[in-house]
Automatic annotation (TrEMBL):
Entry annotation: catalytic residues: E200
An annotated Gene Ontology molecular function: hydrolase activity
Pfam families: A_deaminase
Boundaries of every Adenosine deaminase domain copy: 7-328
Enzyme class: hydrolase
Family that this chain belongs to: Belongs to the metallo-dependent hydrolases superfamily. Adenosine and AMP deaminases family. Adenosine deaminase subfamily.
Keyword Zinc (UniProt): yes
Residues binding substrate: H14, D16, G170, D279
Gene3D superfamilies listed in its UniProt record: Metal-dependent hydrolases
General function of this protein: Catalyzes the hydrolytic deamination of adenosine and 2-deoxyadenosine.
Protein known as: Adenosine deaminase
Length: 333
């Protein structure tokens, strides 16, 4: 259902939520890390989700297997590089990869700043090798609290020019946006764009806070906006994009019925919605799968999906000239 004649773009993909089970197995062997699995297939069963989990936090636990094998900087580099290989295999024209360097560094006590450097290098080498354009979004993992997030931010700011935006992810209900006010001020001062996970595990207030307090110009998930007409109007008028990830929403039990996913009404109300994968390695999906779900289950027709593909280019954290370049390249392909 993706039109490969139009730009193929994923704006919401966690590179640390997209670690291949085979790589998890490999790295565990290489570094003598014990896993409750005897081979790569058993790692898939352990670290991937095929139906649904009880809630967001149960879903996020699945990502822990992948980061538990990041024993050194080469492992971080490899994961970043393989994300570009995956992007190429999916025929993406452009991908925004987000990552939480503290989360990646934590198990083996790596330097946060060195993890950022390794990820940047893996992504740049992957871009050159596979010919896919990518940008990086830094994540503050709110689950670890405001002080740890300041350390995480410091590591990201050390590579300010290699990063285009800042995100806040993790336990939304337990760690609300106002706790991170000063972090996002520093990010805006650094010239970064802002996207925030909001309205996934908390209500529409959380989305308002992401916009008004943190300065978000895009919202990850944003499903809770469905109950707030004033917010819906605000999102449409101000062209604040919603990064929808339907399979992730199903697996986290954010929504119980994908057929009634609010991205339908967001779209109908003129909000710039996009389709994205979130954590494809954990969800065992790719971008094409999400377009198929949007068509077969949510009921978008081909023309509407084409508009969603164009929304992604519009909403990308890219300068106009680079957006035009992608557009031009597609039209002459
Ligand atoms: O769907 C999600 N909602 C909220 N946070 C998420 C989601 N997927 C991953 N992370 C969080 O992002 C960081 C790793 O990139 C981790 O903090 C992980 O918990
Ligand atoms: Zn996410």
């Amino acid at each position: 259902m993706i039109d490969y004649g139009l730009p193929v773009i994923d704006l919401h993909r966690h590179l640390d939520g997209n670690i291949r089970p085979s790589t998890i197995w490999d790295l565990a062997q290489q570094h003598h890390i014990a896993l409750p699995a005897n081979n790569a297939e058993e790692v898939s069963a352990l670290a991937q989700i095929h139906d649904r989990t009880s809630d967001l936090l149960a879903f996020l636990k699945k990502l822990d297997y992948g980061v538990s094998v990041l024993a050194d900087l080469d492992a971080c580099y490899r994961v970043a590089y393989e994300n570009l290989q995956d992007a190429k295999a999916e025929q993406l024209d452009y991908v925004e990869l987000r990552f939480s360097p503290y989360y990646m560094a934590k198990t083996h006590q790596l330097s946060v700043e060195a993890v950022v450097e390794a990820v940047v290098q893996g992504v740049r080498d992957g871009e050159a090798e596979f010919g896919v354009k990518a940008n990086l979004i830094g994540i503050l993992s709110r689950t670890f609290g405001a002080d740890v997030c300041q350390i995480e931010l410091q590591g990201l700011l050390a590579h300010k020019g290699e990063i285009v935006a800042l995100d806040l992810a993790g336990d939304e209900a337990g760690f609300p946006a106002p706790l991170f006010d000063r972090h996002f001020k520093q990010a805006r001062d650094a010239g970064w764009s802002i996207t925030v996970h909001a309205g996934e595990a908390a209500g529409s207030d959380s989305i308002w806070n992401a916009i008004k307090i943190l300065g978000a110009s895009r919202i990850g998930h944003g499903v809770a906006a469905k109950d707030d007409p004033e917010l819906l109007a605000y999102l449409a008028t101000n062209q604040i994009g919603i990064e929808s990830c339907p399979t992730s929403n199903y697996q986290t039990t954010t929504l119980v019925d994908t057929a009634r996913h609010p991205m339908r009404s967001f779209f109908d109300q003129g909000i710039a919605v996009t389709l994205n994968t979130d954590d494809p390695g954990v969800s065992a999906i790719d971008l094409a799968h999400e377009y198929k779900v949007a068509h077969d289950v949510i009921g978008f027709n081909k023309a509407e999906l084409a508009q969603i593909q164009l929304n992604a280019l519009e909403q990308a954290f890219l300068p106009e000239a680079e957006k035009n370049e992608i557009k031009k390249r597609k039209s002459t392909d």
